[in-house]
Amino acid sequence: MHLFHIKNQESFLQLIESQTQQLKELKKTEQQLTQALASKQQHLFHGYSWPIQRESQFLLDQKYAHSGEINFRERLVCQSTQFNNRVRGAIQVFETTIKPKPCDTIYISEQHTLLYKWLKNKYTNTVGSEYMTESSFLNKLRFQLKLLPDKLNHQDLTQLSFNDNHFKYV
Predict the structure, then answer these.
(1) Would you tell me which of 9, 49, 110, 118 could form a disulfide with 56, CB atoms 3.0–4.6 Å apart?
(2) CB-based contact 133:154 (threshold 8 Å)
(3) How far is the C-alpha of 154 from the C-alpha of 76, rounded, in Å?
(4) pLDDT tens, residue by residue, 87-135
């Protein structure tokens, strides 16, 4: 994945113009993937998965498709991690631009997801939370039972209970 820092609309337009050929090649790849899926409900593709730093198989299907267009952002699910394209991309951007250390304190506003579990495993000082309304008390109990021995950390993002500067990354 190539990352570009864009400061304004002019630099964005210059980037698009300079990357025209690459964008055409990406569109061609998307079309090839779409054609491979045309006669099937799903298809497995071989590729590289950033979170595990090795090759894996990726499931592509019509889930979340709109008007026949495959939702590449939410699909291409890595069979090793079960992360979709969006989550794998977010991890790659986080690790290549921020370059966190394994001991850094990280807060993520989710606790009952594969992404939280992955972060907690790699970055041991990761803290996650879930927001539970009064009406979802039964769900809170279910989550607590599933997360045992970890206790569900209820947080309201507008009133977090952590001290200022407690986390290095949020």
Answers:
(1) 49
(2) no
(3) 31
(4) 999 999 999 999 999 999 999 999 989 999 999 999 999 999 988 776 5
Burial of 66 from C-beta contacts in 10 A (0-12 / 13-18 / 19+):
exposed
Structure tokens at 94: 């986080």
**The pair of three-digit structure tokens given for residue 55, joined into one six-digit string:** 């090759």
Angle at 103 between CA 97 and CA 104, to 5 degrees: 50
- Rounded to whole angstroms, how far apart are CA atoms 148 and 144? 6
d(CA 4, CA 51) in angstroms, rounded, equals: 21
Tell me the range of 3-7, 30-34, 99-103 where mean pLDDT is highest: 99-103
Question: What phi, psi does 35 have (nearest 5°)?
Answer: -65, -40
Instruction: Using the structure block, give the residue that is written with the tokens 């921020």.
Output: 98
Q: How far apart are CA 97 and CA 91, in angstroms?
A: 10
149 cis-preceded (ω within 30 degrees of 0):
yes
Is 0.70 topped by the overall pTM? Answer: yes
- Quote the Cα angle for 145-149-153, to 5°: 75
Q: What is the DSSP letter of 159?
A: S
For 34, other C-beta atoms within 10 Å of its C-beta total 16
3-state secondary structure of 25: helix
Strand partners of residue 60: 43
